[in-house]
Amino acid sequence: MIAADFVDCRSPKLLVMAADGGVMRHLPRTALGSLFCPGDLFIANDAATLPASLKGVHCPSGWPIEVRLAAWISAGDLTQFAAIAFGAGDHRTRTEDRLPPPLLSPGDQLALGPLVATVGRLLEHPRLFQLHFLGDHSSILAGLARHGQPIQYAHVHEPLALYDVWTKIAANPMAFEPPSAGFALDWRTQARWRQRGIGFATVTHAAGISSTGDPSLDLRLPFDEPYRIPEQTAAAITQAKSNHRLVVAIGTTVVRTLESAASVDGCVLAGDGVATGRLTRESPVRVVDAILTGVHQPGESHFELLRALADDSTLNQLSAEISDHCYRNHEFGDSILVECRPCDAVS
After folding, report:
1. What structural domains and CATH numbers belong to the chain?
2. C-beta separation of 183 from 175 below 8 A
3. Average pLDDT, the chain
4. Which residue from 28, 91, 125, 340 has the fewest beta carbons nearer than 10 Å?
């Protein structure tokens, strides 16, 4: 049983809206294969999701603790992360209602199943800290695979398996939560794009956590997130732009990657980088012409990114349409397509 079945077994829906407040269209998500024109380019995040939730014991107190890996200190270095801590409980309790962790101090040891870690410095909050795993990369990776679970929230009651949070294009394990807009992808849609001459490329972006359970910490989301842009993806973007075709980001992480990497003239170079800060209504959008994303709520960092692409009146109308037509939210829900520039549909 896939994770989406835990929420709703009906066919996924797609809400298409123009950023200038134009007419909104309600479509089945299978219509994605028939939107856009030859030469347009879809870009997705191929990061696989780490089993980033680890339960264990805070050794100095003997109290239970859950640690959620939240950000890379250095991309790909499995020995150290930024992490969020919770006390006893599990995902069936709302994140904002979870018990606080035991008091953490630098040097405290944590027993996390087969893994041993120490608390580094606190990161300006009693629940956010640097975590240092003891051991080499192979033993840490094995411990994560044996003991870790996907980060999960209360809207899905049944425990998720790791394969539930991997998209069909998942590759390198870099994300802490799934780049969930990619759940909209299926092989039929991609085959239809190929038949119609619509491009598809990928980036790898370390998608971070969507909620900490603490309003003050949530204001700091998203944390800094490393990314990699392959040579072929940069070349595909250059070709699409030179031909005046549309670049469509599949997910907010792709928007962050491309806009973080873009020069003033909108040129995107291949290579590694780090996406920092939030995109807001004041942020110039130089590369992305449309975004396919999940259904998010106002105030969430994913929704707030849309303010860089659409005005408040349009987003208010979007929220009303989502409510009136019972769109399914969260990572296994329905999808919306925000067009900064018009796209075309074919029969």
Report:
1. 3-49+166-339 (3.40.1780.10), 53-147 (2.40.10)
2. no
3. 91
4. 28
**What integer pLDDT is reported at residue 317 of this predicted model?**
86
| List of residues 6+ apart from 257 with CB closer than 8 A | 45, 203, 205, 227, 229, 273, 275
Whether 46 contacts 174, CB under 8 Å = no
Q: How far is CA 264 from the centre of its chain?
A: 25
Summarize pLDDT for 124-142 with one digit per residue, the tens.
999 999 999 999 999 999 9
The arithmetic mean of pLDDT across residues 308-319, rounded, is 83
What distance in Å separates the CA atoms of residue 212 and residue 200, rounded to the nearest whole number? Answer: 33
CB 124 within 8 A of CB 166: no
Taking the whole predicted model, whether its pTM rises above 0.85 is answered as: yes
H/E stretch holding 252 reads helix 252-261
Q: What are phi and psi for residue 68, nearest 5 degrees?
A: -115, 115
